[in-house]
Structure formats: C-alpha cells, structure tokens
Amino acid sequence: MKAKNKKWLIWLIGGIIAIGAIWYFFIKKEEVKIQLETVHPSMGEISNSITATGTVQPVDTVAVGTQVSGIIKNLYVDFNSQVKKGQLLATVDPDLLQFQTEQIKANLQNAKSNLAYNEININRQSQLYKVGAISKADYDNATNQYNAAKAQVGAVNAQLSTANKNLSLTYIYSPIDGTVLNRNVSEGQTVASSFSTPTLFSIAKDLTKMQVRASVDEADIGNVKVGQKATFTVDAFPDEVFKGQVSEVRLHPTVSSNVVNYTTIINADNSGLKLKPGMTANITIYTNVLENVMKIPVAATSFMPDSLVAEKYKINSPFLKGRKKGGKTKQTGQNNTHKNGTGVWVIAKDSTISHKKIKTGMDNDTEIQVISGLTTSDNIITGYKTLSKKSGSGAAKSPFLPQRGGGNRNSGGGGGGPR
Predict the structure, then answer these.
(1) Which residues form the YknX-like beta-barrel domain (predicted)?
(2) Which residue spans within 28-114 are E strands per DSSP?
(3) Are 354 and 316 within 8 A, CB to CB?
(4) What is the Cα–Cα distance from 345 to 362, expressed in whole angstroms?
C-alpha cells in the first residue's frame, strides 16, 4: 500500500511540473521591458551639402613642345624629374639646320660682294653722268642695280636670323620650375612640326598645390558659390579627408547621357604630396554652414509615445489624455508639428515624460537646428528598444515605421507623423 501511494505521489508531482512548464513556456505572457533612447542637445556645426565626383589635377601644367622638325638627339630628363626654369630638357638633331645656316651665310657673302661692286659702279656712273658722258637712262639703271643689291643683303640677313633662331630652337629648355609628369618622345624619334606643335613633355608647376575639377549636377549648381568649403576623399587614402575651397564655377556646361554638369574648381593643399594627378575624388561641397548652434537628431522630432510607453512611464502632456480599453492611449494631437514650430519629448529625472514645443531652423536630414525651446540639460527621447527576459535581446524601434496600438510587443518605439 505504501508503494502504491508512493507511485501516485510521483505521478502527481510529475504532472504538476508538466503543467507548470506548459503554463510558463506556452501560456504565460512574456513580460516586455523597454529602454528609452535619449540624447542631450549639443552645440556645434550644422551644414547642408552636395556631393559630386571629380579628378585631382595640378593647378598649372605646361605642355613643352618643339617648333622645329627633326630627330630627337638627346633627352636629359625623364618622368618625375624635378626641373628648373631654363634647364635643358632635350635636343633635336641640329645638323640639317646647321647646313642651311652655312648656306645662307655663303649667300650673304655673295650678296655683300655684289653690293660692293654696285656701290663702286654707281659712284663711277655718277661722275660720268655729271660730265655728260652717259645718258640719264644709264645712270638710272646703275642706281637701280645698287638699290637691288642693298635690298638683297637685307633679305639674306633676315634669312640668316631665321636660320639661327631655328638652330637655337633645337635646344628644348624648361619654361618653369616644376615636375615632369609625362614624356612623349624617346631618343631617335622623329618629330614633325609642319601643322601643329608636337608635345614633348608635360610639366606641373607646383605639386604642393592641387585642384579638383568637380562635375556638379545642374540641380545642385545653383547653391554652389566661390569661397565655400569643400572636403573630398580619394581611393588611395579612404580614411583621410582632404580639405579645399571652391575657387571657380565655370559657366560652360558639359552634357553626358543627357545629364548637364558644370565644372567646379576646388583648390586644395598638397603639402604632404599624397594627392597624385588624375586621382578620382569623391567631393562634398558645403553650401550652407552654421557654427556654434544648438542641434538635435531629426529622429527626436518624429518620436511620439505609444501605448507601450504609456504603460511603463508617466506622461505629462495635453497631447495624450485618458486610456482606452486594451491599453490604447487616446491622442489629442496628430503629430509633433505645431503652427509655431516642432515638438519633442523630454524625460525628467523622475521618469516623467513631457512634451516641449521648440522653434527649429536649418536641418540636413540628420540633424536639425534648435533656435529656442530647449537647453543642453534636457534629455530628449529619440526612440526606444524592447528588452525580453527570455531572449535577453532588444530591438531598436525606428520612429519612422508605422506603429501598432495596444497590447504587448516584441519591439516598439516612438510613433509620430511628419515634422
């Protein structure tokens, strides 16, 4: 009998445990706790900006060419060479031009000899004409030959000056101090300058000062002005932000795939020589900047306490009055927007939530300027996340997602309408 009673006692205890487990895991409602996400207003800079892409280029680049044709005889610089103004860069074979110069010199000697003969002849003819030994026609003919010989000497002298100038142009000198970015020729290569001047070298004047040529969309160009601040990054240094300033907005548009862009020049310091010509830059131009202003996250202006918040916290606001069945809160206001400004929700030290009306200014979709209505000691609610005992995890609730009314939830947050 004792054994039978003991068996029934074991079954009874097991049944109670099973019923308790079923109730705990399947019937009992999970208690949900919430944690408000708050932030204090801060003082700082708030700005509006536009983005664009562009390329890094030297401020001043000179293309060095040749005005004479010939074979490149010598090269004295290469890529990345540092050069000074007046430094010899290359020579074109001068032999052909030297031969032409010698020929013109010979022609000049011949012209001078002819001039000397005609000078003697005109003197003799002048004396004969004075005594009546020759006619006026003979004297005029001698005078014409003398003048022609004198003009011929002047013409050959001009040819010689041109030949000497062309001969000097076989020596290519640097016009500026700078760095050789590109060399387009090699020794032994023939260059011809018949129709256009061939480029031998590209020299950047000063690589410590660079400019970014940004392509700004026509929808944004109206806000871009000379003197505005800009920042940009390059792929070579993705974690480093380079600073610059808008120096020029060019009026000539470029059209690509039916998109109109305007070239905007941004000057940047390159003292560290990290920026290289041709790098692609991702640019941010700050079109409006306010410094030392009070600002809060935009999410704070969209937060609205829902029924779950009302169950856990005391709400002191004419916006929310009474309680409906099922835990739903009756709202007397539609959202946080008012005729004279925007509203935010503030939590006090005694965990009381109250509504404050504020006047706002500029916003950049992330932060918004507060003109009046708040102090830096106010604790502003931006949303909340739920804390589950079973899961031990919380889920942040976005104030921009639609809200469910009443009951317990696995996640929650501030609802609200548009600002």
Answers:
(1) 210-285
(2) 32-39, 42-58, 61-65, 70-75, 82-83, 88-92
(3) yes
(4) 20
Of 292, 355, 349, 286, nearest to 42 by C-alpha is 292
CATH of 50-59+206-291, one of 2.40.30.170, 3.40.30.10, 3.40.50.2300, 1.10.3720.10: 2.40.30.170
CA 393 to chain centre: 42
Cα 27 from Cα 11, distance rounded (Å): 22
Which residues, listed in sequence order, are joined to residue 54 by a DSSP beta bridge? 214, 281
- SS3 state of residue 61: strand
Q: Which residues contact 67 (CB under 8 A, 6 or more apart)?
A: 166, 169, 193, 197
Place of tokens 């169950």: 311
CATH architecture of 61-200: Beta Barrel (2.40)
Residues 253/274, Cβ–Cβ less than 8 Å: no
Per-residue pLDDT for 383 more than 60? yes
Give pLDDT tens digits for 344-374: 999 998 888 999 999 999 988 899 999 999 9
Q: What are phi and psi of 325, to 5 degrees?
A: -65, 150
Compute the distance between CA of residue 95 and CA of residue 101 in angstroms, rounded to an integer: 10
E strand or H helix at 153: helix 136-168
Query: Residue ranges of the domains in the chain?
Result: 50-59+206-291, 61-200
User: For tokens 């290569």, what's the residue?
Assistant: 189
Which pLDDT tens digit goes with each residue over 159-212? Answer: 999 999 999 999 999 999 999 999 999 999 999 887 677 899 999 999 999 999
Distance CA(148)–CA(104), nearest Å, equals: 18
Which residues on neighbouring strands pair with residue 267, listed in sequence order?
Answer: 211, 245
Terminal-residue alpha carbon distance, the chain: 78
Instruction: Compute the C-alpha angle 263/269/274, nearest 5°.
Output: 100
> Using DSSP, how many helices (H) and how many strands (E) does the chain show?
4, 24
DSSP symbol at 332: S
- In contact, 380 and 294? CB cutoff 8 Å: no
Two tokens, residue 318: 């004419």
Residue 31 DSSP label: P
Position 418: which residue type?
P
Return the pLDDT at 129: 87
**Could you tell me if 166 and 80 are in contact, meaning their C-beta atoms sit under 8 angstroms apart?**
no
Phi, psi of 206, deg, nearest 5: -150, 105
